[in-house]
Design goal:
Order of helices and strands: EHEEHEEH
Number of domains: 1
Structural class: alpha+beta
CATH class: Alpha Beta
Radius of gyration: 18 Å
Largest sheet: 5 strands, mixed
Oligomer: single chain
Length: 161
């Protein structure tokens, strides 16, 4: 719950545990950005719903708020750089207009897609469609080896400074 605004956060899922292959750093940035927006554009006493479910070989993460909503005319540009949405909350400061562009870019780098549903005055729902993929043991060892090689290269570069 956002105690300053009294926003209630409700988390639901159709399964207890779901393991998929994804970049945890990208995933964290995506979720934090979407939750930050939901909190920013939801008025005092509103709600944010987070749901995770499976559909058509995708894991779908839904972040839905009871905020101000977005005009459908703005959907086509919502993920463009420096696009600041007009909102109806006088207390909400505009951001840089980079957040949703970053979200879309990161989702696509993980071979996923992002969708949006919204009704002005009722709220907005962002839907992340991530591949329902697991990593095989042989792939995992290759990833670990590559990560160690990158750490070694990074250590060399920093020591040269």
């Amino acid at each position: 719950m956002d105690y300053q605004k009294g926003i209630k956060v409700i988390f639901d899922t159709e399964f207890e545990e779901k393991i998929i292959a994804l970049d945890i750093d990208k995933y964290e940035k995506i979720i934090l950005n979407l939750l930050s927006n939901a909190t920013k554009f939801t008025p005092q006493g509103g709600e944010i719903f987070i749901n995770i479910y499976e559909e058509n070989n995708h894991v779908i993460i839904s972040i839905k708020d009871t905020g101000v909503g977005i005009n459908k005319s703005e959907f086509k540009n919502i993920f463009e750089k420096f696009n600041n949405l007009k909102n109806n909350l006088p207390t909400v400061e505009s951001g840089t207009g980079l957040g949703l562009n970053l979200v879309k870019t990161l989702v696509e780098k993980m071979n996923g897609q992002i969708g949006i549903k919204s009704i002005v005055g009722k709220g907005t729902e962002f839907l992340l469609y991530l591949p329902n993929k697991q990593i095989e043991d042989r792939e995992l060892s290759s990833i670990r080896r590559t990560k160690k090689e990158l750490e070694h290269i990074t250590n060399i570069e920093f020591s040269d400074i």
